[in-house]
Amino acid sequence: MTQKTRHISISINASFDSVYLYVSEPKNLPQWAAGLAQSTVSKSGDDWLAESPMGLVKIRFVPKNNMGVVDHDVTLPNGVIIHNPLRVLRNHDGAEVVFTLIQQIGMSDENFEADAAMVEKDLRTLKEMLESK
Prior knowledge:
Strand content: 35-45%
Number of helices: 3
Strand order of the largest sheet: 2-3-4-5-6
Structural class: alpha+beta
Helix content: 25-40%
CATH superfamily: START domain
Radius of gyration: 14 Å
Order of helices and strands: EHHEEEEEEEH
CATH topology: Alpha-D-Glucose-1,6-Bisphosphate, Chain A, domain 4
CATH class: Alpha Beta
Number of domains: 1
Largest sheet: 5 strands, antiparallel
């Protein structure tokens, strides 16, 4: 059975390279991804630890690459792992950031919409930050 998904994207008037480098650096999460990291992100082995709205989470990113893939798994405090597809795409001289939100099993439609709104807010924050540099 498939779950509801939504691709949430934003165009950023900054180079692909600069956007990818910023988005793929876990230490930058608290500056733009309040839905995931609300405090300092610290390294723990292959993972990153962050205080989130859900409690202390463990984050594992795919290795750095030249394709703009910034997928990451988030392990919630209860042990559930959520896969988060995230891409930075070339868009002429700028970039497009696309997050794919997947409705988790047992997640209400209301919580899915709340998560979508949080992702949209985080992407707007990212855009404002990178375009003001």
